[in-house]
Amino acid sequence: MPHPPLPTRAEDVPAAFAERFNGGDPEAVRELYEERAAFVPESGTPVHGIAAITEANRPFLAIGLPISVRPRHVHVSGDIALLIVDWEIEGVVGSTATDVARRGADGCWRYVIDSPFGAAGAAPAGDGQARLA
Description:
By secondary structure, this protein is of the alpha+beta class. It contains three helices and seven strands; from the N terminus they run ααββαβββββ.
């Protein structure tokens, strides 16, 4: 099954991530990252490269619930964008991401840095009882 198209506008990156995440296909999510991208999990210790990012995203996908995203700010300068995005995995975990995306030679935007918890740790969503392990 073909994956949804990659975003061609910086402001569409969060929605593209949500669509791919909610499809449950790790490969579809993986395509949204540059080869040498960084992912900053809840621990705050970044991981680098597609294989490590795929592993870091695995616990989020394993929750099996949809993610919702609400971009707060999208700042674009040429081929670089800063994305500040509120997100929540349906009552389980949520936070405000601070992400950097870049437009590639193909015109598509991909994450260079994905920091789903931004400067703060994870905030339990909903009733506050569950956190990402």
